[in-house]
Write the structure tokens for this entry.
Amino acid sequence: MTSAALQDMPVTYDVDDIMRRVAKAKSLLILDHPFFGMACSKRPIIYTDTVPTACMSATGQMYMNPAFVDPLTVRNLMFLLAHEALHYMLCHSLRLGTRDAKAWNVACDKVINDTLVDAKVGDPIDGGVYMDGARNFSAEELYDDADADGPGPGGIGNDVGPPCDDGGQALDESQIHQIEAQAKIETIQSAKAAKAVGKLPGSVERLVDQLVNVSTPWHEILERFMIAKVKDGYSWKRPNRRFMASGMYLPGHDTKPQMGEIVIGVDTSGSIRQAELDMFNAHINRILHTCNPEKVTVVYCDYDVNSTVEYEPDDFPVTLKLQGGGGTRFEPVFDYIDENGIEPEVVVYLTDGLANTDFTTPHETVWLTTYSEDLKFGTVIKFEE
């Protein structure tokens, strides 16, 4: 949050009071609605009169017009913050496509506002776009019936315009993918935090499911699994000092999400072809870029471990190469992990699945299998070209 954007604006309101009320609204969201509290805490706010009300950029930058915010109650601000955060988390700007931006924003607002009303998040803002039952539909389903009557709390026509960076430049495909991945990370983490304390409303859970279960290719499933392991970067051990003087405590934040060490096991018995390794290389490196692991250890194994390669972040991309050619056993990879004191966040094992799994391991495992799915522990994902 910054007041720098207010320097050239005529001050007819108490800026410090606005910032205190917004901070209080965030604190109440964390306590009463942790899904939205976590989400809002990660979104920086710029106050500016260049937007009529409030809006969220495709990149997750929140903008608020102080003249619009000033008369709102703290409970109104809770609703507004959650509203804007959902636009980002649901990637509404990225889903615009060739649709009319204003009508699309109305459809998105209907879904969001009905979700927030159902979840009893703060108090709705007068003049918003509301439709009973809209939470049971996607914005795409409501788009054809959307009209453009009246500004919603996000500022109709401003929240979900064509996806651009904060400088107004159109986003390329790699940037769009990165934003989608980051939004998924934040959404999954916020949902996990809320569910852990029994405060994830059913309507919100349905929205989360829509977001994370859209695609089913193996690499999308693997990506979702690994994103869920990413550390959220927030800690109550390092409170946000900006609000400590006012008696409000918000978690501190590390800017780049990160997960722990990853071990990649590669079955080199001859069942995995180089073409499959090449495909895995392409997708796993994109996922690693998103998840930012502390370290990656690749263990090549047929009947025994035949080689290992360690990658620090500066060594990426990871490159898997065809080697070996003996029988198949899985235990040696897990023995290597234990004998070398490795504590992986997850073990990803690329194999045809044709070996004995009658053993136990404390390490969370994802089997990426080209053939058999009859594995007795871990998460099994079918690898298909």
